[in-house]
Amino acid sequence: MFLGEDLEALKAEVGRLQNENREIGQEKALATSQSSETWHDNFGFEETNRQQMQYGARIGQLMRIISHARIVPWPGLTELVAIGHTVTVENPDTGEKKTFRIGSYLTPGADSSVIPYSSPIGRALLKKAKGETVSAKLPAGIRKYKIIEIEL
Questions:
Q1: What pTM, to 2 d.p., does this model score?
Q2: 136 and 99 in a common domain
Q3: H or E stretch including 146?
Q4: pLDDT computed for residue 68 by the predictor
Q5: Regions of the chain where pLDDT drops below 50
Q6: Using an 8 Å Cβ cutoff, are 91 and 107 in contact?
Q7: Residue 48 placed within a domain
Q8: Measured distance CA(23)–CA(4) in Å, rounded
Q9: Do the Cβ atoms of 103 and 5 come closer than 8 Å?
Q10: Which of 85, 102, 105 is nearest to 136 (CA)?
Q11: Reading across the β-sheet that carries 141-151, which strands appear in turn?
Q12: 51 lies in which domain range?
């Protein structure tokens, strides 16, 4: 599931990777033309070949995600946490407050305050109301968060 803006950012990321992959292809052609061998003992050729394989794999992965993507509308109400909402939570044990924006499955270029809905905290917060306390299983252990505010 994606917000429209996140899906467009993902498509732009694919375009950027494709452009970089083309540039690597040009470097590969140059490395090949500068050597009497096509690939044997030609570091430039081998390195650009490796980079092209990595870029190709990542582009393929992102294209598969895009082909299965479903756009969700911006949430209109703030009664329950949904993708696109900004949520302020408080750790009831420490009193520490954090603010997150619940993002799409992938949010290219987003800052660290945007968390995917599929993350442990994102999953715990979805469809919960202001005042509810949720538990999220994180690598550092189980954390509890009380929902203080839900905003668009």
A1: 0.71
A2: yes
A3: strand 141-151
A4: 94
A5: none
A6: no
A7: yes
A8: 29
A9: no
A10: 102
A11: 114-116, 97-103, 86-90, 141-151, 133-138
A12: 4-67
